[in-house]
Amino acid sequence: MAKTPLGIKSEKQKIARELRCTVKEVDDALGDIDRGYPLYGAEFTTGLLLESEYQALMDELPDMAEDEDFVTSHFAKEWKTLAETLGANSKSAQIVEVIDKVVSVNRLKEILVMTGFQRLGGEIVSPDINGSSDWLPCLELYGEGIFLSFNEEIMDAWESNPVVRARADQIALRFSNTGLKFDVEVTISPRFILLHSLAHMVIRQLESMAGYPAASLKERIYSSQGGECPMAGILIYVAVPDVVGSLGGLAELADPQRFLRLMTSVFEHAEWCSIDPVCAEHEGQGPFLLNRAACHACSLIPEPSCSFKNVLLDRVFIKGDPSYEMFSFLDFQR
Is 149 helix (H, G, I), strand (E, B) or coil? Predict the structure, then answer.
């Protein structure tokens, strides 16, 4: 509901008191925001926003207060130190080698904006039904998460394998013929399918190891090749409306020892499915046949947790397939 001039004046005075400034400074700040501050005239795509998020997660930020909207703890040094205590050819040692960074996201904020709704693929209806409002409803969510990034050299070498690329190209061709669109921009590539499949396996493993219902967890996939900022990372997080956020149980799993146990189980469970060999050998399943080795028994998660409608998944990119001379992701870097 629109405020009266008196109500607006009262709100500005309240803001000025809270920020210890004058009402004129509040007016000046609002004018700057209307003109596009701090990015005057800039246009951002979701891809550029993902790059900014990825860089924020990769960089260790000093002097962060616990009550800030974004707080991280980095374990890269402790993570790499684990390699000294592991057998040279063990699965655990391979995992430490391919994963470059492990970050505990102790606090994050997510803003969900409702741009409209639709039923059964029909016309999108604006939130206020008649489309006359100049604003959109939104919701602030607070939470925590785990972020991991992969060694770019290993990832680049693995996805350059012709067998790997050919398998990804088959899925990309099917996707291009569907007309499907997601809220997040996506380029179908071997690294994207690998990262997306791993994210689902991590969510399923967190459900069994940490007690988090899969429906309460969300994924964020950072995938791009070349350019100034190649990305190969996964953020798994939980976010709730309460400003206090969640209880810290998810972020604590970024502790290197605990995280290694988690990822070892993830890679082990990616190797089998209760419906194998049918699932592993499937040529196409799910909507528009956009999944290969991925079904409800091994890879699918609740729809709200997935940013890509539970498609573009394939365990073979993780575990490999000897019949097609396709190495597993862990074995490829040997």
Answer: strand
Burial of 199 from C-beta contacts in 10 A (0-12 / 13-18 / 19+): buried
In whole angstroms, what is the distance from residue 195 CA to residue 270 CA?
13
- Buried (b) or exposed (e) across 241-271, using 16+ Cβ within 10 A? eeeebbeeebbebbbbeebbebbbbbbebbe
Q: Does the CA dihedral 132-109-265-88 come out positive or negative?
A: positive
Angle 256-269/190-209 helices, nearest 10 degrees? 110
* Residue 67, C-beta contacts closer than 8 angstroms, at least 6 positions apart: 107
Place of tokens 């962060």: 64
pTM of the predicted protein model: 0.84
Asked whether the bond before 230 is cis by omega within 30 degrees of 0, the reply is no
- What are the helix (H) ranges across the chain? 5-19, 23-34, 46-58, 76-81, 91-98, 152-159, 162-176, 190-209, 249-252, 256-269, 316-319, 329-332
Closest-CA residue to 192 (of 333, 290, 334, 298): 290
Adjacent-strand bridge partners of 223:
232
Rounded Cα gap, residues 179 and 172, in angstroms: 12
Per residue in 232-283, pLDDT tens? 999 999 988 765 556 668 889 999 999 999 999 999 999 999 999 999 999 9
Candidates 72, 240, 220; CA nearest to 140 is 240
Please give, one letter per residue, the 3-state secondary structure of 78-118: HHHHHHHHCCCCCHHHHHHHHEEEEEEEEEEEEEEECCCEC
Residue with structure tokens 């997601």?
A: 182
| DSSP for 286-298, written as a single string | SGGG-BSS--TTT
pLDDT tens, 279-299?
999 999 999 999 999 999 999
265 vs 282: CA distance, rounded Å = 23
CB atoms within 10 A of CB 35: 9
**Residues in the chain, overall count:** 334
